[in-house]
Amino acid sequence: MKPRLLHLDENHPLLIENLRQEGFECEEDYYSSKTEIEKRIANYEGIILRSHFRIDKEFLQAGKKLKFIARVGSGLENIDTAFAYKKGIVLLHAPEGNCDAVGEHALGMLLCLMHRIIQSDRQIHQGKWMREANRGVELSRKTIAIIGYGHTGKAFARRLSSLKTKTLCYDILEGIGDTYARQTSWEEIFQLADVLSLHVPLTELTKNIINHETIQKFKKSFYLINTARGDCLSIEALTDSLKSGKILGAGLDVLPYEKSSFESLFEEQLSDDFHYLCHSEKVVLTPHIAGWSQESKYKLARCIFDKIICLYKAGKKI
Fold first, then answer.
1. What is the dihedral of CA 290, 295, 299, 302, to 10 degrees?
2. Residue 23: helix, strand or coil by DSSP?
3. Total number of domains in the chain
């Protein structure tokens, strides 16, 4: 009997095509509610999604036959991972699939901030030619601190390597520094950093990891890049620090106001801090697209396909 898989988000077509070629029965449902899907999830061995909705304990309990959940993306924060592991459900994700896109995006945001590219573009469109006011700051020989040195952190560091930066990294795992970044402590980062870039998953440890207290520990004013998750950064602390000059500029691809699907902002009233960020010349905002390239769409799907095949070959024949 063919293993039945349910796809909850549309991805690169190679994923379904290749799975079917390997003997899987693939069904697609991109529009039903969580409640509707929960009523029939017991029929499937695997779920494949991006961030359609939160996979909680009740949903997992209903999935009597679930062997795996595959997220075509990097984070697993929308899944009750502890309960899934308790039930023996394998969780698959693909941080290596979009890390190059994230690394490039982070570098692009940083260069836009330091060389005032977006501000200058807007001014020229308004008929203003302001050279001295837009004198940039070179990235060369600056100290870059990368928080979280997994796939995306390493991809960012590789791109910095040709720019003659001093690159430091911090991670809860030991011994993961490499030729592109020297692993160090928070204390050294507070002393030396000119740029701080976040590349961590959202966990209890990383929620609001950058806050008022953290920011005040930095010896120098610095630029901040966040391509991780919006809740890793206190927006109130960020806006206060932008106003005071402690943070020189911020590139944000993620915001705490996003819906859990990452497809749009919350519909309720947005804060004054958000409106400040939207109108500040010190801020570059993008709609959670750092890992959203034409190439990553293919690579993410390919990674998940390969991992599903490895899972079944290790456990049983299809």
1. 140
2. coil
3. 2
Tokens coding 174: 């030991």
Checking if the pLDDT of 144 tops 80, the result is yes
**Is 258:78 a contact under the CB 8 Å cutoff?**
no
Percent of the chain scoring above 90 in pLDDT: 90
What pTM was estimated for this model as a whole?
Answer: 0.93
Residues 118, 253 share a domain: yes
Same domain, 277 and 190: yes
Residues 140 and 165: beta-carbon distance below 8 Å: yes
Banded model confidence at residue 267, pLDDT cuts 50, 70, 90: low
* Per-residue pLDDT at 261: 64
End-to-end CA distance of the chain: 8
Do 277 and 239 meet the contact criterion of CB atoms below 8 Å apart? yes
Residues linked to residue 182 through DSSP beta bridges, in sequence order: 168
3-class secondary-structure state, position 174? coil
- Give the pLDDT band of residue 265 (cuts 50, 70, 90): confident
* 220 and 143 together in one domain: yes
- Report the alpha-carbon angle 20-21-27, nearest 5: 5
**CA 54 to CA 227: how far, in whole Å?**
21
Q: Which domain holds residue 204?
A: 99-290
Q: Which of 252, 195, 263 has its CA nearest to residue 229? A: 252
Task: Return d(Cα 133, Cα 99) in angstroms, integer.
Answer: 35
